[in-house]
Structure formats: C-alpha cells, structure tokens
Specification:
Elements lengths: L1 H46 L7 E2 L8 E2 L14 H9 L10 H12 L25 E9 L2 E11 L8 E6 L7 E2 L17 E5 L4 E8 L6 E7 L7 E7 L4 E8 L11 E7 L6 E6 L10 E2 L6 E7 L6 E7 L10 E7 L6
Amino acid sequence: MKKNSISQSAFFNIRVLIGLFIVLAGVFLALLGLGTFSAITASSAQAQPKQKIKSINLQLLPPGFDCSTIHEKGIDRQENLRAGLIMIACGESPGGSASPAATFSQFVQKLLPVPLAYGAADVDVVLPDGTFPHVTQSETYTTANPDNPNQIVINYNDSRNAPSNYSGVSYSSDGGATFHALVPSPLATGHGTNYGDPVVLYNKPTSTFFGIDIATGCGGQGLGSWKSTDGGVTWATGACVHNGSFDDRESGYADNTPSSPHFGNMYVSWNDFAAGQGIYVTYSSDNGSTWHSPIQITSSFIRNVQITGDKVTGDVYIAGMDEGGGGLAGPRSNKIYRSTDGGAT
C-alpha cells in the first residue's frame, strides 16, 4: 500500500510539473508575442501615418456619416456592436482577428489530464455553431423560471448571421443538462436589425420570458423586446422598451416576489448617448405591454453597470461607474442609485 501511495504521488507530481511547465511556457510566449507585436505595431505606426476618414456610408447609418463626430456622440465610449462597426469603418479601431490565446487554451485542455482541466462538465449552449469566422458568442444573460427551474433561457450576442443580425437565444427544459440553440434567431425579426447587448427577464404574473436587445427598429439604436410563453421555445415580437438613436449598455431586473409592493414590475436601465450620455431607466407595470417614458438618473456620463432589486422591500438599485470622463485615465468610483417607489423616482 505504501509503495502504491508513493507511486500515485509521484505520478501526480509529474502531471503537476507538466501543467506548470505548459502554463509558464504559455505566459512566456504571450509576453514575447506581446513585445514583438507591440514593436511591429509601433514601427508600422511610425512608417505609415494614420489616415483620417472624414465620412462613411454604411447601411446602418444615414448616408455620409461624419466620422469627426465620434467623440461628440460618445461612440468611442459605447460598448455595443453597432458602435464598434462605426469605429472600424471610420478607421478609429482595428477589426477583429483570431486570438492565439484561444488556440493555446484548447491545446492545454486536450493535453492536461482531467484533474488539471477546467470545464470538463460544461454544456455547450450554441450547438449547432455558425460557420467560421461567424462563430463568436458573448455577453450571455441568463435567467430561469422561478416556478419551474427546468426552464432556462440564455440571450447572447451571436455573429452567426452578422452583419444582418447579432442575436442568439438558447433554452433548456431540463434544468441546464442540455440546451437548444434557436436557429435562425427569433430575435432577428420584428424590430429591424438586432445588434445584441442582451437582457433576458422572466415575468412571473404572465409566466413570460422577455428578451431585450438593441434594435434599429426602435428609433435607430433603441431597445426592442421579444416574449416567450413556452419556456423560450417560440417567440413573438413585443413592444419597444425605448425608442432611442444611441442607446447602450442596458441591463434589466424583474420583481417576481408576490409580497413585494411592486410585484410584476420589470425595469431596464441604460446609457442614452443621444441625451447627455447619462443613465436612464424605464419600467413596465403592465407585464411588458407598455413602458414608462425614460427617467433620467444622471446628467453626465456614468457607465450603467447593472440594475437589481430587493426582494423584501421592492426597492430598486442601479450600480454605475464614474470613469472620470471615460477611457482608462480615471480616477474611477462606484455609484449606487435607489428607487423606493417602483422606479418612479
């Protein structure tokens, strides 16, 4: 028994050493690559002065969009996919490319033994996937039916049909053991072009899931909604949550506590870059049929982080971040805003 124990320990130590060696090698290569590409980028920037693009014509914008207004409109502070396409088209941001880190991560997972691997029991929620390079999914927003936890819906960005649609929806009817991706996305119709930035809420009084994304059909870059009454299997177009031209960074919360004074209310907060770039919030007190006119929370740019609520009191909270004007310059500070009257103030 002692000999067997020593053998197992030695074998484990070898595996640990192999794992550490691979990790350190990856870090070294990453740092080396960073230095190399930084040097290449720097020399390239010196050799080729940046060319300013004055105007662009994109299907998602009015003809002759003035690229010089990017900072004025706060497009360089936005995080949605439509803003990203504008930045790339105006030459202010490089386009995306495959990451060597992803390949290295797959290599490590295949090489390492199970005790050192992560995600062995994970479930893929997007099968079947799109065709390369349209295989990017991000910003998952997940919720479950509190009366039937087997029903789970995930709303996410999906580049499968980009640039005509950036939305994706998957559902589970067995508590997350398996997921079914809806192809084509049901959130791709009803509100023009869907640019993602996903939210998904569950409305207990009507047993309805609500998906909320940025959509051109709600003012150009507003917030559209879709609803499902069968656990996410089928969807119908809902109301526009907000008709806006430069909405960004929305988040949502549903009050599903029967004892709450605001039971059934659904809330959505976002940054409105067409109205001072501050945080705004709206709410529905009729189960998503209509949404209140926008309520201004901040008069200057504070990044909308997340809206949530207190299940006992029904109070609603919005977390925001003061980025010191945007970018990485800072200083930064966290903000909290509270409503005690169901979102009215």
